[in-house]
Amino acid sequence: MIVALLALQLGSLIAPAYACGCGAMIPDRNQRIGVDRETSVVRWDGRTEQIVMRFTVRGDARRAAWIMPVPGRADVTLGDPELFDTLDDLTRPEYRKRHYFWPRSKDWPFDLSDSDGLSAGAPMPGAPDVGVVGRERLGPFDVARLTATDPTALSGWLKKNGFELSDRLAAELTPYVERKWEYVAVRLAPDTTDTTGSTGTTGSTGTTGSTGSTGMSTAPTLGGELTPLRITFASTELVYPMRLSRLAKTPQSLGLYVLADHRMEPRDDIGGSRPEVRFAGGIEGTEDDALAALTGGRPAFLTAVDQEFPEPSRIDGDHELRAVADTPYREVIYRDRLLTVGDGIPVWFLTVSGVLLAAAGAAVATVAIRRARERAAVRSAA
Q: Phi, psi (5° rounding) for residue 256?
């Protein structure tokens, strides 16, 4: 049983990542890549949508490809990693102290240990089956922007140009072809400019390399945080593509920051757990250069949404987000502390001690009064 469980766990670590939270990640044949976490920032002004994505990956793949359907003609540029740090700071939970009176299991006299509780654009008729709108090199990425009128032709073009697709993934592209969506296809590979034979990493591209026994540098593999990509396209509705994630073999996790004129939330769960809003509130949009570049330096309403997909095969569509009441929200985490005074003396102990002392004093006084009355009665009788 132990061997079987270990094998199952190992299999989940190296399973091919044919899908991730937005689009599909595909390694070279016989190689493996896993997406630990995908975090995306979406900016929508009612006419144009921008998506900035950052992947954290692991595995043994030296190269991989990533495909994302989009509803209109897309422009692709590199994103700024500092954007995610800024949004993390803006949406950080608020920590508050909260005192309790009676001792708990980890408080004296139950436990002598000292601890604090933490509560936690459609193609024209007659156009070719696959059209290449543009192709460019962006840092470690080879980016192709495509149109397609036939899912088989799209799959064939992708395979011919180095994008190895599973049959299931090719089939899942059909709904997007029928809706005349376009596609962003990205090939990514580690930086191989290091010819000195030394061990090193290229942090900006999220790659790692090692030195072999001969002193020559082995080919680096994709790992860590990859350089963010920024995709911009026209859209009169706020949509976040998710359908391809149904092909994932392991549970998926999505972190989504939405910048719009109002608080935006998914219309439904599309087969995952209930989306959870962990922050909602207005921001200036100029907190740093990376954020200002996305908002145009104008105020926006920021909504942070987390969602889990325990069974990705149940995903039945793309996320469509709608405006709701601009009610602000920030997660509050309480640090529970025992109520004390002075040098840490529990208030409950002083209270109980005081009550006991008062009761003892009252009892002594009662006895004293009773004895005094008895002596007075004896003297009166004499």
A: -130, 125
